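The data layer described in this paper is built around a simple, fixed record for each protein. Such a record has a labelled line for the sequence and another for the backbone structure tokens. For reference, a complete record is included directly beneath this paragraph.
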Amino acid sequence: MVGKMEIKPYVVYLSSSAHSNWREPVKAKYVKNGNVVFVGPCENHGLSDAMGAPGDVKPGHKLRITQMLNKSDILFGYIPDDRYRSFNIMLEIGIAHAKAKKILFVNEAKSLNNEVECVQPYIDKSFDSLSNGLNSLHQIITNASENGRANVEQSKSRQPSNHLEHKIFLSGSFSSTWVNCVKAHYQHDKSVTILTGSRIQDIAEADILFACRTDSEGRLFNLALAIGYANALGKQILFVNQGDHYSHAYDYVKPFADGYFTTLDEGLRYLDYAVGIEDRL
């Protein structure tokens, strides 16, 4: 029997400082709306710093915001005051605009009015109070939810989804041990789909390439080929070189990866972080 196709949820990226808890009441308001998902950068300040705070060489910050913005339909940016620099909000708006995402922006820091003028051409709507911004967001979410319900009524073979799907393509050493380890790691995470196969064209369907070299022997041309192809497609790339086995040839590959790791566990830890699985970090 063929399972029902899912209607993708409406995904809202909440962009702001990690120093306030305004996001929680917003999420709570829609807890019964099964077709809206809220995402964003890591809100746990300690975990965010550990995985790679801005300016750190660790790749967590880039991996997380890139993956979540890729999945988002709309970015809601909020500057509550001028105590914090808010550079991350501008960075995330820049990425969202390039990816043609809808953008709502709230600035309650009146002292920054002149500085934030630069962002005005790249947003859809701006507001001077959080309540006004959230009212506009609510209308957008309501319209999206109504459209989702209409689609369900039109096609009984489809049902709304309340979670994201992150597709991870595996490439690298031909041993099945590491592949099985990755599959086992995500077997209970319904938001993660593992893709394998010999056709690099399948990478086009994936969000992230997870490439792994398990030992120092052999020439993994397939790994280099996959990384080159994924890089050209703008996919995120995590490269695990277990044991940090030195090879001048692989030095050509490393600069094209968004994250480089020397153990499979470390690679999986950052992959968890990128797709928003924080409860085991």
